[in-house]
Amino acid sequence: MLLLALDTATPAVTVALHDGTDVIAASSQVDARRHGELLLPAVDRVLAEAGLRLDAVTAVVAGTGPGPYTGLRVGLMTADAFGLALGVPVHGVCTLDGLAFAADLEGPFVVATDARRKEVYWARYADSRTRLTDPAVDRPADIAGQVAGLPAVGAGALLYPDTFPRAHEPEHVSAAALARLAAEKLAAGEELPAPRPLYLRRPDAQVPKNYKVVTPK
């Protein structure tokens, strides 16, 4: 197995290679505005670090969000392109699940990432491998009662200490954690879902209302 994992659902552009035993190379850069510019060089970098070529990859894993529309699409479309070019399966893993796995906490906790607009993408977990709720997007104050007293990880939790007073790192997801989680699930015979995006809300770009239609004479 050579698993290529990547995620662009948060400000982190993160890539990792997993050989079926453990992660053998990884790269993460935080830049919310340059996902498309940074992702492919990161893939080249981890392959070079591992001394491997892209055609050695046997499967691809992509973080499916939730995340902002543009950034999330960069990773998912790149993963699909690799899958088609190499003829290998492409799997999806929820980005929040990757953060939960990396946190490695015991007992119930929350993962929350920054959704902008003073909102967070979030979900509750029983442990680092078991999600209790579907991913959602809400204002922190609106979910305070649901997360009260629980430890929390992720940039969204760190941004709103009034709602998440027990927040701590990791701040962003790492492809290394995604790769380890995916490899563990695949080794156990679990079928991973297709890499479909979890947008949770409509994109910011909208067709203008009441615009003037120009017709040819």
Automatic annotation (TrEMBL):
Domain Gcp-like, first and last residues per copy: 32-145
Record-linked SUPFAM superfamilies: Actin-like ATPase domain
Keyword Lyase belongs to the record: no
Entry's Gene Ontology molecular function annotations: transferase activity
Biological processes annotated in GO: tRNA threonylcarbamoyladenosine modification
One GO CC term on file: cytosol
InterPro entries registered for this protein in UniProt: ATPase_NBD (IPR043129), Gcp-like_dom (IPR000905), T6A_TsaB (IPR022496)
PANTHER family attached to this UniProt entry: TRNA N6-ADENOSINE THREONYLCARBAMOYLTRANSFERASE, TRNA THREONYLCARBAMOYLADENOSINE BIOSYNTHESIS PROTEIN TSAB
Official protein name in the record: tRNA (Adenosine(37)-N6)-threonylcarbamoyltransferase complex dimerization subunit type 1 TsaB
